[in-house]
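Progress report, Aim 2. The chain analyzed during this reporting quarter is listed below.
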Amino acid sequence: MAASRFDMNRENQWCPGCGNFGVLKAMKDAFEGLDLFPEDLLLVGGIGQSGKTVGYLAGNMLHALHGRALPLATGAKIANQDLTVIISAGDGDSYGEGGNHLVSAIRRNIDITLLVHNNQIYGLTKGQASPTSSLGMTTKAQPQGVTSTAFNPIAMALSAGIGFVAQGFSGDTDQLTRLIKQAISHKGFSMVDIFQPCVSFNRINTFHWYKERVYDLADTGHDTSDLGKAFALSQTDAAAIPTGVIYERQAPDFHQRQGVLKNRGLRDYRFSKEKMNDILGKA
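Predicted structure tokens for the chain:
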């Protein structure tokens, strides 16, 4: 792999063959392709193997509590809108513990990008079912099979009013790089759900399982502005899995909707103890 200004000289702790390696490469290539520099970025990691990604990238970095990456990233972007804020989190972190925060981020249309490492399992905590695990899938914690219907992140995001949502595969880093670049360039909240095989705990949704099923929407002439078609794509079965931009539309982002934040972030406002005391005294 060619040297990147985002490289960090740290020992990697992922299992050999982990899909996270493809996501990491695509992130570096996307950042380089957008001519970003480490000082331009705030990388927020969730808990789990996916959250470790930010520790292998040069840039401003924060680790959040489980499910709390989105509110932390939201606060940072509100404070300093000049930062490019990227979240790297897993399917459990984003769709389980952090599900309500995800809905709120979509509705606010805060200008940050969420990259979800979706391996359909909890990898760090040794293989129990995640929100996206298939119904009936057996795990160490669910030996009789998963009894909950798998969560559909694309359908949820569309119904909540997301402005940019895409689906990628860690085994196609060229396409994934393009999707991450498009997501970051989109003004408003963007999400890329990334199918990322777990070689240790998910023996069903493997690299080859995905390789036989994924196809690129760019080859089909898909209209990314067609909400109805996007919903239809979110309901496709596992026999053929679409990757690419599912839906995109432009709308005023959070800063544009807040008059006091249109031209500057919270960091640009001077704190007035006198005004604060006056406000508190009238409360």
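The beta strands are 41-45, 60-63, 84-90, 113-118, 164-169, 190-195, 214-216, 241-248. The longest strand covers residues 241-248. These observations will guide the mutagenesis work planned for the next reporting period.
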